[in-house]
Amino acid sequence: MSQSTQMNMQEFQSLARILHNVLFYDPTTELLENLIKYQVIESWPMFSGSQAEAQAKTQIQAYLQTWNNEQTLALKLDYGQLFYGPAEPSAVPWGSVYLSEKQLLNGESTQELMVFYQQQGVSFELDSNQPVDHIGLFFAVLDQMFAQLAIDENETLRSTLIILLQQHLLPWSARCLSLVQQHAQTDFYRGFAIFAQAYLDEVCRELQIVPLATQLYR
């Protein structure tokens, strides 16, 4: 493995972990404080060099510079309306809602993903009964896979990663992230949706993945 390839895998791994924490969990004071303490946004790579990425970085930095504990509730409410409700979520985070005509949770695509994970030995210890096709959980799996690829460029694992992205995540993730950008009430989630999309685009470029064209129902 070349040094540059190893560095790419390490970078993809560390960014996937952050995106997992941002997209899967309710925002916490600890998360925000760590982003500030470790200057995460200042060092976040600009993959495309686009104006959208640059603006997202500026917006998140500005948000964090003025952030205080009193804003935690507003951020939690934003996260809730985007991903959970109590009314209809603005940016449903589960893939089957986009991929099934009836827009159901735990649909056929979820079952196929569960079989894929079982075959690959991927499992989760979750605090709640959460469908495994939550966009935030995909980033947890990417975290694990890129961590392994940074140590050993295993072609079998690389092929597994490509299948995970091409068949199970990329067909719908851009739609979900675009809805986050459209409906987020805070620059924090609006910006991270742009970061997540740019990240996935860069992974596709690095791994030479062509996303499958799939009909979406939301």
From TrEMBL:
Keyword match Plastid: no
Alphabetical keyword list: Chaperone
Coiled coil: none
UniProt-listed Pfam families: Nitrate_red_del
InterPro entries listed in its UniProt record: DmsD-type, DMSO/NO3_reduct_chaperone, TorD-like_sf, TorD/DmsD_chaperones
Parts of the chain that traverse the membrane: none
Name the record gives this protein: Molecular chaperone TorD family protein
